[in-house]
Fold:
Amino acid sequence: MLESVEQVGSLTASPWIYVLVAGSVLLDVFLPLLPSGVLVITAATAAAAGSGAAGGEVPRQVPDILFLILSAATASVLGDVAVYRLAWRGGDRLDRALARSRRLRGAQERLGSALARGGGTLVILARFAPAGRSVVSLGAGAAHRRARDFVPWSALAGLSWAAYSTALGYFGASWLGTRWLGTLVSLAALFGAGAGAAYLVRRRPAEAGAQA
Structure:
């Protein structure tokens, strides 16, 4: 793991890091196993090192925090919209797949209820949960939810996730003073947030059922 992080870290001195981050974030809605969060945190850690906030040699060029957040957030929304549109046009084959998946059916129901109430907390929580972004985007499109009800929440979710991940990497390295330790602690915090978000997403329908 550390070796992989170091290999990615060697790219952070190049402007191509924004393309790499954006590409990974864009594609992980289709392939949730892609380490987009790892890339964002590693790039943010490099930014902290370049600013002198963390220990170690300062590279000549480091990622800009604002550009890093914007590239990750924009790619997140574009990926969500792509899956949403594909699911919208999915037809009978997708409907049959949804009918066989209790998880996707549940996501459709919860998302529809949340958006009908004028809230999109579920969309934001799902962005942090493992594969939750994929399930929610697919469910919104398959249920033909209006774009104006889904896309703004997707944008807020993407921006929240990008800002949180970047802040973890930057401040983790700044406070701990060691780049590799800051990266590991930040990744642990990111995975912890994902586990917490997944728990809350599962708990919401149970609470709704208890109140009914």
Observations:
- Residues 179-211 form the longest helix (33 residues).
